[in-house]
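In this supplementary section we document a worked example of the pipeline. Step one takes a protein sequence of length 330 as its only input; no multiple sequence alignment statistics are reported here. Step two produces a three-dimensional model, which step three serialises into C-alpha cells for compact storage. The input and output of this example are shown verbatim.
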Amino acid sequence: MDSSTELHSEDNLLIIKGRFRSTSQNLYGLFLLMFNNNRRLDPYHIIVSSYSEMFEHEPHIGWEKYEEYIVDKKWKGVYNNSMTASLIDATQALSEDTKLTEILYNHIYNYDYDQMDIIIYDMINRIIHDKNLYMETIIQEIPMAEYHQVRAQRAKKPEEENTTDEKNEDTKNIILQVKPIVAPVKGKPLYQLKIGDQIMVRIEPETSKENYYIDLYDLRGEKNIKPVPGSVVDIKSVSGKNDLIEILTEITPGIFGKFIEEEKQVKLKIFDPATDNALTDIAGSSRSSKRQNPSDSGSRSEESTGKSILVMGLLFVLIIVLLVFLILII
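The serialised model returned by step three reads:
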C-alpha cells in the first residue's frame, strides 16, 4: 500500500493497476482503471498480448508510468486486437452499470482486495475463459492536483515533438497507429492484398502524435475520425507468427500508418476515387498525377464541339443528296 493511501480525500483519485496471464490461452494483459472524484470509472486502459514480456511489467510502479507503458504498446501495435477490444467493451459495460461500479468503488475505497478482485477477475475471465487465470492488482490513491500536473506535463510534449517533426520532416518518417476500414461485401480480402494497393484507414487518436495529425489533416468529425486513403508499402508477419499480419501504408510522403490484423479473411475497403474523392486532397502530391488538368478539360471540350459540328454538316449534305436523287427519279 502506498503512503499516499493512508488518508482518504474526496478530491483524490482511486486507481487500480493490474496484470493477468492465461498460460492455456498464451495471453498476457495489463489494465489501469481510474475512478474520478465523482466515483465514475474514467479513464481506463487495457491491453492483451500473446507476448510474455507484457506480464513482466509490474503494477507496483507509479500510475503514470504504467499508463504510458500501456498506451505506448498499443501505439506500437504490440497487442491482440480482438481480445483487447473485447475487454475494452466489457469495461465500458461495467462503467455504465451504476450499481456495480458503486459496489466496486466501495471495495476499492476500503482497500478490500478480495471483493474487488472478484469483480475484475470475473469480468476478465468472461473474455479469456481460463479457469487457471492468474491476476494481480494494486490500488493507488493520488491527489487530483498530481493528476492534473502529470496531464499538463504530457500536454507540453506534443508541442516539442511537433516542432522537431516539422524541422526534420524531410529526413524523418512518422508512423501513426491506424485502423483499416472494413468492407464485408465489396472489400478486398487481406490475404489478396499486395504492395501498391490503396486502402482506406482511420488514424486512431491513441496518443498526442496521432491527435496532432488528425487535427493537421482536419479529420475530426462530429462523431468519429474521417478515413483517409493509404498506399500499402509493406506486408509482413509479426515476429514469425502466421496469425498476425502487419500492414504499413503511406498516407502522405513521410507519413505512414501501421496496423496489425489477425483475420486473413477480413475484407478491407479499397480507395475509390468516385466515392472517396473528397479525401484525396489529404494525400497531396502522392496522387496529384491522377487529378484532371483544367487545360486538358478545356481542350477535350473544344474537340468534342468540333466533332459535333462536323457530324451535323455531314447529315445536312446527306439530306440534300437524297432530295436531289428523289427529284431526278420523279
